[in-house]
Fold this sequence. Notes:
The protein is mainly alpha-helical. It has 2 helices and no strands. It has helices spanning about 5-20, 25-40.
Amino acid sequence: MExxxxxxxxxxxxxxxxxxxxxxxxxSTYEQCLAHELxxxxxxxxxxxx
Length: 50
């Protein structure tokens, strides 16, 4: 996937989460919702929780 397309999809997912949740929640809440939105948007994502 081209870098510009990928970055636009990621930013779009982040904005969608922000629109739905607004401000004032814990970072972990945004992280979980962004992970879901990225999966729904077809953006593969892998990371390790320590």
